[in-house]
Amino acid sequence: GRVLHVVGTRPNFVKAAPVVAALRATGHDQVLVHTGQHYDERMSHIFFRELGLPAPDTDLGVGSGSQARQTADLLVALETELLARAPALVVVYGDVNSTLAAALAAAKLGIPVAHVEAGLRSFDMAMPEEVNRRLVDQLAELLFATSPEAVGHLAREGVDPGRVHLVGNPMIDTLLTHLDHFDPAAARAAHALPERYGVVTLHRPANVDDPEAAAAAARALTEAAGHLDLAVPLHPRGREALRKAGLADAPGIHLLEPLGYVEFMGLVRGAAAVITDSGGVQEETTVLGVPCLTLRTTTERPVTVTHGTNRLVRHGELVPALRKVLDGQPAAGPEGPPLWDGKAGPRIARVLTEWLERHD
Ligand code: UD1
Ligand code: UDP
């Protein structure tokens, strides 16, 4: 049977690349559908080139909109696509609106769904991603988890344990595949950064959509830049809001376009500290042993905190936390959490292949 992967956003591309590659190695019939949720060159195309993802078989070009509008447009476009491609199985990644729409469209057509990165929970239903995660995990036939906590969440929500597979973290497969190309000195030189610098990414609605939150973030970052030069590649969502809130190219603040994966990870690898609200970046810093300060009140990735690299901070706590990091020892060794070993893609491919053989 045919496998159809649905991707739509920057983090989806990073997670799908190793799964698509591992299935390709088995010679399986697979189709890659891009929903077009992300569409800028620097949010989309650059990742296909860098990560060796095949060009999508279709780009649905759905684009941006409110939560309901975007999800509805995705649902309609995906239904047509699934009917035309008639896959045996649909694979979805992470927790974005494209993930939910694909899982729902498939489930309504009676097509089984596999969810990569199942079982993560922030327990904060104000996050659109938490809504997506919970619903997708109820719809999925096969659930691939990155950590034992995730397996526990699924068990407590009544998901049949026979469907759940602890396989590790495909985002870390991608990281380890490209690690030798992450060149801090080159990335630093390209952006005129000093030897000691930090990297900042912010794009969560809770930090950038509300003007008061954006102002608090801008203030905290401007003060932090007094202690450490900050490279700030801005996601399009936060760009206008953070600038309006007062984040400007000031001494110590280097506002950048969104970066390609290899250049971004080059900067992260060499950073004295990372400040973020990203999900993926909390995991990447964990494996690279780079201290990470997460500007959020919750995380769906607690293993990054218990591992020792990540800490949740409020805006007012950022500068003291940063100073502590800069004065202290490296956060943790290079060993990542169990199964974050670069082999999640092949493990997922094996489970998918066995499932397909049983259901052919
Ligand atoms: C989405 C995901 C989020 C994920 C993030 C990764 C949902 C609910 N959110 O958030 O979980 O962390 O992707 O980056 O799915 N825009 C552009 N160019 C683009 C894409 C977006 O300018 O190529 C702008 C548009 O103004 C758009 C806004 O960014 O309205 C938000 O884009 P959207 O895809 O709706 O959500 P993200 O904030 O990117
Ligand atoms: N990333 C990138 N360039 C950037 C910012 C992020 O390549 O300028 C990568 C980052 O390494 C991570 C992925 O994009 O692997 C996920 O990004 P994002 O923070 O957008 O999504 P989230 O993980 O929060 O859903």
From TrEMBL:
Write down the NCBIfam families for this protein, in alphabetical order: wecB
Q: Which organism is it from?
A: Streptomyces fuscichromogenes
Q: What is this protein called?
A: UDP-N-acetyl glucosamine 2-epimerase
Please give the superkingdom of this protein's source. Bacteria
Q: Which family does it belong to?
A: Belongs to the UDP-N-acetylglucosamine 2-epimerase family.
- Pfam families xref list: Epimerase_2
SUPFAM superfamilies in alphabetical order: UDP-Glycosyltransferase/glycogen phosphorylase (SSF53756)
Gene Ontology MF annotations: isomerase activity
Where the record annotates domain UDP-N-acetylglucosamine 2-epimerase, the positions are 24-352
Q: Which InterPro entries match?
A: UDP_GlcNAc_Epimerase_2_dom, WecB-like
Looking up PANTHER family in the UniProt record yields: UDP-N-ACETYLGLUCOSAMINE 2-EPIMERASE (PTHR43174)
UniProt keywords, alphabetically: Isomerase
Q: Mind telling me which Gene3D superfamilies this protein's record contains?
A: Glycogen Phosphorylase B (3.40.50.2000)
